[in-house]
Write a structure and sequence with these properties.
Blueprint (H helix, E strand, L loop, with lengths): L14 E6 L2 E6 L4 E2 L1 H6 L7 E3 L6 E2 L12 E3 L6 E2 L12 E2 L7 E2 L21 E2 L21 E2 L12 E3 L6 E2 L12 E3 L6 E2 L21 E2 L12 E3 L6 E2 L12 E3 L6 E2 L12 E4 L5 E2 L12 E4 L19 E5 L8 H7 L2 E5 L2 H8 L4 E5 L2 E3 L3 E2 L2 H14 L6 H9 L11
Parallel strand pairs: 3-5, 4-6, 5-7, 6-8, 7-9, 10-11, 12-14, 13-15, 15-16, 17-19, 18-20, 20-22, 21-23, 23-24, 24-25, 25-26
Antiparallel strand pairs: 1-2, 1-4, 27-28
Length: 422
């Protein structure tokens, strides 16, 4: 089929060449911009292959939209712009010749080209507009040129065959739903220049096993990694202040979450249904955590809340059927569903005033109470009792607390000069 592209250099160089029902038609063509009117005149709807002449400099809006029989297009180097929705809905389109002269590809240019396997973005393109390759479900190979500074909304949404993607250094924001539902995406390189990851940017990337969130990121949008079912570990950089709604919801293989001491807010459903998560430590810096931030994390066994100033709209333990250890400052107890937790948690390690703690958790099977200074300058905590608690939990409950968890607890103690070990 591509043998006919040589027409561009032959006697038909200034003629639009269209293949319909296996017959090539060569039409004199001198317009510089191929428009929707031309599409109607030459009945592109029935075309299976099109070779655009050298006289054309731009492919206008909607020119080949919904040409469902079109399977191949030859674009000459004279073309500098592919217009909005130019090939939208060309479901049979498999081949597009390298269009090296193109500097601009507009919104939705190849949206819905579900048979397109490969497309080479020309090196002088600086912007990939919204929905440019949305729902190109057969697209497996994509290299984004280094000159690109902008990747728009839904640019690659629904590219279910795409396995890897590079983010150029000049890109500072990954916009909403850019890679949403790229279910075969295994590898993504987010550079240190990226400052924001938009809402649902990588939602539904169910094959993504590892992602590095660079230190410069300050914003992670709602549901940004929701449904990344093979993601096993995530480390939140110190530049991120808030983990937004449903950010890691349904990351069912996530078993390690690293939160930092500059984090302030964990919003609704942030880690909901992360069913492989076993332990979590809430840093001392967190001032607000939504009640369902960790709801339905059915494998969660150990929860350590380090913050004494945590505000919440009533923390729930619903469906945390394996929760066996809760370590929490006394000041946070009033935000817990203790009546339910007391029957659910056999070993409840409570930091704080022993009388208040006992009154709030007296039904717990076993309560370890700390009575020595000092946790955040006002709470009660003593290192010897922590180590004793760890020993008892390990021996009596056969719960093995990792060393990094113990170190995390010790790190949050504010020692006074008079504190001693006995």
């Amino acid at each position: 089929m591509f043998d006919c592209i040589s027409i561009l250099n032959g006697p038909y160089a200034n003629k639009l060449s269209i293949c319909m029902l296996g017959v090539w038609v060569h039409v004199p063509f001198t317009n510089y911009i191929l428009t929707k009117n031309d599409a109607q005149t030459f009945n592109f709807k029935n075309a299976t292959s099109v070779v655009i002449p050298n006289s054309v400099t731009s492919i206008g809006h909607n020119v080949f939209k919904d040409c469902i029989a079109l399977s191949a297009v030859g674009i000459p180097t004279s073309v500098t712009c592919i217009g909005e929705n130019a090939f939208f809905g060309c479901t049979a389109l498999k081949y597009v010749t390298p269009c090296h002269g193109v500097t601009s590809i507009k919104i939705g240019a190849f949206k819905g080209c579900s048979s397109l396997v490969k497309f080479i973005i020309p090196q002088f393109v600086t912007c990939i507009h919204d929905s440019t390759f949305e729902n190109c479900s057969a697209l497996t190979d994509m290299y984004i040129p280094t000159r690109v500074t902008w990747i728009g909304l839904k640019a690659f949404k629904g590219c279910k065959s795409l396995t890897k993607i590079n983010i150029p250094d000049k890109v500072t924001c990954i916009h909403n739903s850019t890679f949403d539902n790229c279910s075969s995406l295994k590898e993504v390189n987010i550079t240190q220049h990226v400052k924001a990851i938009g809402c649902y940017a990588f939602s539904g990337c169910s094959s993504l096993t590892k992602v590095h969130i660079p230190k410069g990121v300050t914003y992670m949008g709602e549901g940004c990694f929701k449904g990344c079912g093979t993601l096993t570990e995530v480390r939140i950089p110190q530049s991120v202040d808030t983990i937004t709604y449903n950010a890691f919801e349904e990351c069912s293989s996530l078993n390690a979450v690293h939160l930092h001491n500059h984090l302030s807010v964990i919003q609704h459903g942030a880690f909901r249904k992360c069913r492989s998560l076993v332990t979590i430590t809430i840093p001392n810096s967190v001032s607000y955590m939504d009640c369902e931030a960790f709801a339905y994390c059915s494998s969660l066994r150990v929860v350590i809340i380090s913050s004494s100033y945590l505000h919440s709209n009533y923390i729930k333990f619903a469906e945390l059927t394996h929760l066996s250890v809760l370590i929490v400052p006394c000041s946070v107890l009033k935000t817990l569903d203790v009546d339910y937790a007391s029957h659910l948690i056999p070993y409840c390690c409570i930091m704080g005033d022993s009388a208040y703690a006992r009154s709030q958790a007296m039904d717990a099977e076993y309560c370890i109470l700390y009575t020595r200074p000092i946790f955040n300058s006002c709470e009660q905590l003593w290192i010897f009792n922590i180590l004793l608690a760890m020993t008892r939990l390990s021996f009596e409950c056969q719960i093995s607390l990792p060393n990094e968890m113990i170190h995390s607890i010790l790190h949050n103690i504010k020692w006074s000069e008079t504190t001693t070990l006995e």
